Amino acid sequence: MKVLANDGISKSGILALEKGGFEVITTKVAQEQVANFVNDNNIDVVLVRSATKVRQDIIDACPGLKIIGRGGVGMDNIDVDYAKSKGIHVINTPASSSESVAELVFAHLFSGVRFLHDSNRNMPLEGDTNFDGLKKAYANGIELRGKTLGIVGIGRIGQATAKMALGLGMKVIAADSFIPKVDIKVEFFDGQSITTTIVSQSLESVFKEADFITLHVPAQDGYIISEKELAIMKDGVGIVNCARGGVIDEVALVKALDSGKVLFAGLDVFESEPTPEMAILMNHKISLTPHIGAATGEAQDRIGTELASQIISLLK
């Protein structure tokens, strides 16, 4: 049987699939050619990340397809229900990248509270001529310890983020319409652990109470944060989105950054991805990454081996 990993797969995933008797093809096929490639090469399994879309047209055109796999959590680039209605298995790896995304959230938070994103732009330009000026400009940092982190969406990634926040000594609050409460277990290197319970509260109360807000939600029909929500937040709030583009009104966000209502933002995903707006890219109050939340070697190894395990279980 043949597997097309169109957006790539880790070496560990390839080895596991080959050991299970599968041929793995990692050729990058253009979106408009995916259906033809699948049919011409008798592909049984198509694996994607966020780049390749598997919509109804591909599903209809590929009657021999047995599995569609998503390396990651969100499945908004796959017509899941339609695929299942055609007898195709749809799989993903919801637990594999939680820690990697959570760490990126804190990379953006640390960058924002200590102005690292802006300092790293200006030190190469002015560090040798305006050192004291830059020192003064970046001298008003904020500690995360003791502050309140508001988590919107307390699923796997939200919980991983909560663990890191608790480890830093932050207060954690959350809003999730599907999870009324959750026990968070923070484990330490020596085998000790502590467990605390987070009870979901209203989205409005999270926005009002949080010093920093991080989003961990799937793709939405509308904005979770727009001008109305920004208005009720604390002055000087920090906002991080490592979830999905389109859940924050970027025009309203830039306006709030310019006015000082929002101290900084950290964005890994964008409304107009993969061509983010220049107003976002050039704003010195935004810490930027190009949708790399799950892009660590450890996460990709876990994703590859988990996909392989599911595929072998279903087809062997």
TrEMBL record:
Protein name: D-2-hydroxyacid dehydrogenase
All copies of domain D-isomer specific 2-hydroxyacid dehydrogenase NAD-binding, residue ranges: 107-293
Pfam families in the record: 2-Hacid_dh, 2-Hacid_dh_C
Keywords: NAD, Oxidoreductase
Organism: Flavobacterium flabelliforme
Homology family: Belongs to the D-isomer specific 2-hydroxyacid dehydrogenase family.
Ranges where the D-isomer specific 2-hydroxyacid dehydrogenase catalytic domain occurs: 9-315
PANTHER family per the UniProt record, alphabetical: D-ISOMER SPECIFIC 2-HYDROXYACID DEHYDROGENASE CATALYTIC DOMAIN-CONTAINING PROTEIN-RELATED, D-ISOMER SPECIFIC 2-HYDROXYACID DEHYDROGENASE FAMILY PROTEIN (AFU_ORTHOLOGUE AFUA_1G13630)
Superkingdom classification of source: Bacteria
